[in-house]
Prior knowledge:
The structure holds two protein chains of two kinds. Chain A is mainly α. Chain A has a single domain (about 5-430, about 550-580), classed as Sodium/glucose cotransporter (Up-down Bundle), CATH 1.20.1730.10. Chain A has helices at about 5, 15-40, 45-50, 55-65, 70-85, 95-110, 120-125, 130-160, 165-205, 205-215, 215-225, 250-270, 270-280, 285-295, 300-315, 330-335, 345-350, 355-395, 400-425, 430-455, 460-485, 490, 500-505, 505-530, 565-580. By secondary structure, chain B is mostly helical. Chain B has one domain. The interface of A and B includes residues 29, 53, 58, 281 and 351 of A.
Amino acid sequence: MTPLALLFATQLTHLGPVDIAILLLYFAMVIFIGFYVKGSTNTSEEFFLAGREMSAWIAGLSFVSANLGSLELMGWAGSAYQYGILATHWYWIGAIPAMLFLGIVMMPFYYISKTHSVPGYLHLRFGEGARALSAVSFGFMTVLMSGVNMYSMALVMKVVLGWDINFSVWVGAVTVAIYVMLGGLRSAIINEVLQFVLIWAGAALIPILGLIEAGGWTNLKLQITQRAGVEYTHMWSTLGGYSSNPMGVNWTGIIFGLGFVISFGYWTTDFLVVQRVLSANNLRAARLAPIIGAAFKMFVPFFVILPGLLALVLLKDSSGHLIQLYPDGSDMVVNHGAHSFNEVLPLMMVRYLGPGLLGLGITALIAGFMSGMAGNVSAFSTVWTYDIYGAYINKKAADSHYVSMGRWSTVIGMAVSVGTAYLVMGAASIMDYVQELFSFFIAPLFGTVILGMLWKRATKAGGFWGLATGTASSIAMWLMVLHDKSNIRFMILQPNASADTIMRVQAMAANLYRALWSWCVCVIVTIVVSYMTKATPESELTGLVYGSTIIPDDGSTKIYEKPIFWAIVVATVLFILNIWLW
Amino acid sequence: MSAPHIDPSTEQSLSIWFFVGVLTLGSGVIILGQGIYEFSHPATTVLAELHPAFWWGLLMTLFGAFYTLRFRPGKG
Lengths: 582, 76
């Protein structure tokens, strides 16, 4: 979202006493939870990993909720308005297969290695270099992302409700700092589960009322086809070429770039989400948690993508004319007060939700933003304390010292986030760059972790250099396109692509190809360097790599207790949904 | 410092589901009250004639009450 664009928009609505009562109830509860769980976060295991005692349901909901931030919700509702139903790919093929893979294949290694973080696993498998690189980049990114979430929340509250930006930044920062500092990951997880319920309660009514107004799904599709084109209602049949769909992407980008590299990178190696599953109370719960998360994830498009599609044909002004939304930063938004794509969800809220329900919807958005901050700052505090402070600065401190460091790093992380929020306020383009930065590290990190888990011959040097060159290649490709957009033709393997084709490839599609190639660079370099260096002794790989590890029995006996059974059920439903919307 | 052992997911004195129940119940009651008020003072939103606040508030109240009672402190 371009901040300057939003600043010029007019206030959409205001909250009444009933709405404020719901908002205050939520704030009172999260602060209470922070104080309540403080008593049970005395050891580092309790503070950073919630004592590893969460059930599969709690860990699963928290896992999916950590990715359900308001920035994503509003952004993807806007993308649905802009690109049509294609945006659903980011929730289905761009998430579900990776989540199932995490539960079935990768979780046993994360869990039985007893690692406390993803950089921690890299340390066990590839040594200090890979850990340091991933820990520093991850820690840096999480505090920046927390700041972006903070500023986005303040901005949305200003646009929707006319609240002062400084007020929103500080209220959000202080609240999150209190409950994460006191309760650590445990507090963050409880709030993520609350946020999950709030989002369903606050947002599900919009698509329900929208479908009633549109006359059902079939009528909605018909109206969208008439207004925007048939390509807005099909997920796969328009992916034959770059020019036949609104996003300018073809099926290779969706399947390999999104469905494989970006999705697997994010859902299996981003510690922000993996940390939630590591809090599970046993191996079976740890394997089931991502599968439960996947089942819920499958239905998120109902209240994120569907409102965007509904807005295409139902969002009208008081005189009954359709409201046209425009890209952020466009002349219409900046100079003429038009609404941007990213405002589609709040606009639909205002359309259908009266007093009380509006308060619930706004509370859900605020909960989503605060949960995004809390998730980032709790992951930062873990990686900082274990993988940077405990690994390089003070290796032999008492456990209580590390808990204390975790609490302080939470406060400092929030302070840096506030600084980032003000930095973004001063220079709007920084926000886009920060969001891009995150993608630099994820795809190569997935290459390193997956080779580390599945390939015994991968060596420490191979892992480090693969990660380093993969990340460097991703940054180089980004700079190359930033310098000259026509360079995108090399990333889509069409050096002679026409200017029209290049123009149609949107930034989102370019990200898919950049991730794909940086992953390939990481994997190739890891393989080549590994063959050039001495193999790691088998004895050092036990518990870390397939083929050198005996996976313990997870205790499930009946078919319906087995994670693989539920993974197949989820995969089958996903397949049917994709065929239905082909 | 001796702290009570807490298993937030299941049988502890205050489980996560209890918090979920209280928040949903509290919000549900407020929205239900607003929904009843709107029978005489209709909201100006689209499809307000379907009384979404009343029905949604009722649903949340029932859901919240069930979770609050089912996971109330002291009920193992």
